[in-house]
């Protein structure tokens, strides 16, 4: 017998009159006329046992999933059905007589419905039946319970630091007698800084293996229930992944390299929790830079910057650079991100200013301010211009002298003659700054 087949009673009538004998008070048999036999044609309406009803089974597998924003219903569909009626009732308790009257909630064409209009934190009972275009209806499903749950679970309790080692930080806690189905672990670098989610677990223990070795983190745990509500935080604890001689430094963070004319400048930052003894700079024309190829090694430095004068050709602008840190125990970090320099045409260095001029016997001494070393055009020295006429320029100067110092004594001068001076700053790329403000002095005889 097919599982969808239901046995039905059969009405039998003969051509002769059916005589029902009933014993009356007189003790004699009495004849009663037969009742009219029901029609064999199918009836429509609310009776699922109507003859010829193709929807003689209720939809199967009705499930209700409680969520924070809605209750989601799903069920198996029937091939003969064209729609499904969803009914809802308030469910104050667990017994059938504790369920309020059902009301039609919606009619849908699929095997799913999302009840987003449910009142928060009110328990509901749901049932579903199928219908077709001819007006047939199926039996109701068995009711299921669901709640739009907005109540967070209790916070976990007694968070403790269970272990600190080179593999990470291990935490344990108690559930707090809540309905949490999982726990989310957060950490931060200080009590007042932003907390970051580092993982989740369904157990009461967690090991954080991803933190920076040597850096002390603040940890807290929150419970999450089946609806996605998250509890208040547990108490906090601090923990540190241990630094050992085998601990590798974190990869350096390379800022965008700068190429100004021929001057290459690389700067990076480094996590301080694993001591670093040196940095190795690599470069190649492809990204990421292959640090396993010795031909790509450029230099090893102890500071967090590297500068160099590179070639004149434009091909120098096509290299990618990467940096690797090495610990005091010769353990190397992963490579930094590979980055290509940003090119800027060179510019003249800044101008200086004479702050002291002292005449002497047949001489004049000048002192001026040093121009800061800049990326735009590193200073290589100064050029002193002299003239016996005011308004000295680079073109009308009668004498010039280059020096790397910020002091110059001009000797062999004629006593009683007034001399005019201005100074230019010289840059590495051959550029020369504007002249300093003019000064003058008259040497003695």
Question: How would you describe what is shown here?
Answer:
There is one protein chain. With 445 residues, this protein is mainly beta. The chain is 0% helix and 39% strand. It has no helices and 31 strands. The chain has strands spanning 22-23, 29-30, 63-66, 71-74, 83-90, 103-108, 112-115, 123-131, 144-147, 157-165, 168-174, 182-188, 196-201, 205-208, 216-224, 237-240, 253-254, 258-260, 263-269, 276-284, 297-301, 305-309, 320-327, 342-344, 354-360, 363-368, 379-387, 399-403, 407-411, 419-427, 439-441. Strands 17, 18, 19, 22 and 24 form a five-stranded mixed β-sheet that branches. It has a four-stranded antiparallel β-sheet with strand order 6-5-8-9, with no helix packed on it. A hairpin with a 4-residue loop joins β3 (63-66) and β4 (71-74). The model is unreliable at 1-45 (pLDDT under 50).
């Amino acid at each position: 017998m097919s599982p969808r087949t239901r046995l039905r009673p059969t009405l039998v009538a003969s051509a002769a009159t059916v005589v029902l004998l009933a014993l009356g008070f007189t003790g004699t048999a009495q004849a009663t006329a037969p009742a009219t036999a029901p029609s064999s044609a199918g009836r429509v309406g609310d009776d699922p046992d109507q003859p010829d009803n193709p929807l003689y089974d209720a939809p199967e597998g009705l499930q209700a999933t409680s969520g924070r924003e809605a209750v989601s219903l799903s069920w198996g569909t029937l091939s003969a059905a064209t729609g499904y009626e969803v009914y809802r009732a308030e469910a104050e308790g667990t017994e059938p007589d504790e369920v309020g009257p059902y009301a039609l909630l919606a009619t849908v064409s699929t095997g799913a419905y999302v009840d987003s209009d449910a009142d928060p934190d009110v328990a509901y009972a749901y049932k579903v039946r199928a219908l077709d275009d001819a007006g047939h209806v199926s039996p109701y499903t068995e009711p299921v319970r669901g709640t739009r749950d907005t109540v967070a679970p209790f916070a976990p309790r007694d968070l403790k630091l269970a272990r600190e080692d080179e593999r990470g930080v291990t935490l344990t806690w108690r559930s707090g007698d809540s309905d949490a189905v999982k726990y989310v672990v957060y950490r931060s670098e200080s009590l007042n800084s932003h907390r970051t989610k580092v993982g989740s677990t369904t157990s009461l223990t967690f090991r954080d293996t991803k933190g920076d070795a040597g850096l002390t983190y603040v940890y807290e745990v929150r419970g999450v229930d089946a609806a996605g509500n998250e509890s208040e935080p547990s108490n906090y604890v601090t923990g540190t992944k241990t630094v050992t001689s085998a601990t590798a430094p974190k990869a350096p963070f390379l800022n965008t390299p700068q190429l100004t004319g021929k001057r290459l400048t690389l700067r990076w930052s480094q996590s301080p929790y694993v001591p670093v003894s040196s940095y190795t700079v690599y470069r190649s024309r492809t990204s990421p830079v292959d640090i396993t190829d010795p031909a790509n090694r450029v230099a090893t430095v102890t500071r967090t910057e590297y500068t160099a004068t590179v070639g004149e050709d434009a091909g120098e602008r096509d290299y990618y650079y990467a940096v690797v840190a090495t610990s005091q125990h010769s353990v190397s970090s992963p490579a930094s991100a590979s980055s290509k320099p940003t090119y800027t045409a060179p510019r003249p260095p800044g101008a200086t200013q004479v702050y002291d001029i002292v005449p002497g016997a047949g001489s004049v001494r000048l002192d001026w301010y040093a121009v800061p070393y800049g990326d735009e055009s590193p200073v290589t020295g100064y050029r002193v211009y002299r003239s016996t006429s005011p308004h000295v320029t680079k073109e009308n100067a009668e004498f010039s002298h280059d020096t790397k110092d910020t002091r110059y004594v001009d000797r062999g001068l004629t006593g009683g003659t007034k001399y005019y001076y201005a100074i230019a700053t010289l840059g590495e790329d051959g550029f020369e700054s504007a002249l300093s403000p003019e000064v003058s002095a008259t040497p003695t005889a």
